[in-house]
Design goal:
With 109 residues, the protein is mostly helical. Helix content is 74%, strand content 0%. The protein has one domain (11-97). It is built from six helices and no strands.
Length: 109
């Protein structure tokens, strides 16, 4: 049973990471194509923490170009229980949205 929950958690995290990657602008994707290749390799090998770190770095270097990228990264961080990183992104989103933003994962079904 625990193994099933873990696999579901990994799939959910992977989904959030791939969603964030898909939301990068074509300009950011072109500028960071080599790093995105490394990101995809980490995803392929289920190294989700490393994939997150690379994607977050790309987003930071791209001046946090999109709130939708940030939102997906915050969900990925929360899914991996990286709560400090999730809160830091939430704080940035709060500033960008001009209202209190908080990432809340839906309960697993």
């Amino acid at each position: 049973m625990a193994a099933t929950a873990l696999l579901q958690s990994w799939k959910r995290t992977e989904r959030y990471l791939l969603d964030a990657r898909a939301k990068l602008s074509p300009v950011a994707a072109a500028e960071h194509s080599e790093s995105l290749g490394q990101f995809e390799e980490f995803i392929e090998h289920n190294e989700l923490g490393l994939a997150y770190d690379w994607l977050e770095s790309i987003a930071r270097e791209s001046d946090w170009e999109s709130t939708s990228v940030l939102e997906s990264l915050a969900f990925a961080a929360a899914s991996m229980e990286r709560f400090d990183q999730q809160r830091a992104i939430d704080e940035r989103l709060t500033l960008l949205h001009c209202y209190k933003y908080e990432t809340l994962l839906s309960p697993e079904v």
